[in-house]
Amino acid sequence: MMPETAASPLTIARRRDVNARRARVAQALEIMRTEGSEITITSVAVRARVHRSFIHRHLDLRADVYAAADQPSTAATATTTTRQSLEADNLNLRTTVRRQTQHIADLEARLSELLGEQAYSRTGLGAPHNHAALEEQNYILQNEIQELQAKLQDQEEELGAAREANRQLMGQLNKTTAASDGSDGRRGKN
């Protein structure tokens, strides 16, 4: 076993200082609770003349401050707020802000649509076309293009067949003419 050494005077002074500050925090917390003051770590630290970090470093003091903030004070009146009521108000305000932000975005979109329609009508360009109507028109025109392409291909095939028939007829005609020219050709040489 190691012999116990006496604490140094610096350590003893430090312990006394910490205990005195802890006592001031407890006393300030009690006074604030009876007065009905708002209890936060900052307000308790100011009242006890300690830094906020002192309360944060001592978990038991921080827990005491939070517990006191959550409990209604003995001098509570109708106008005294608690931490829970402030948190509830904060949550309600955030929800209201989100709802109002969405409402503003919807109004901006509608205003943009109305200004666009107004610009179209004032410039004489006419009303903007409905997207669905444009898609339907595009579908109809694509079908017409396909039908016309099919007709064109049929006509090209018919034209090719007519050209082939014309070539064959011209070939037969040339053979017939050549055969008849062969007998007449002797007469022309005399």
Structure description:
Helix 1 (9-35) packs across helix 2 (41-48) and helix 1 packs parallel to helix 4. The protein is mainly α and 190 residues long. The protein has helices spanning 9-35, 41-48, 52-57, 59-70, 83-123, 131-189. It folds into three domains: 11-80, no CATH class; 83-128; 130-178. The mean pLDDT is 85. It starts with 8 loop residues before the first helix and ends with a helix.
Task: Please provide a brief summary of the model.
This protein has 190 residues and is mainly alpha-helical.
Determine the mean pLDDT.
85
Approximate helicity band? over 70%
Spatial extent as radius of gyration: 50 Å
Number of strands: 0
Layout: helices, strands, pairs:
Blueprint: H1 9-35, H2 41-48, H3 52-57, H4 59-70, H5 83-123, H6 131-189
Helix pairs in contact: 1-2, 1-4
Task: Using brief descriptors, characterize the structure shown.
6 helices, 190 residues, 81% helix
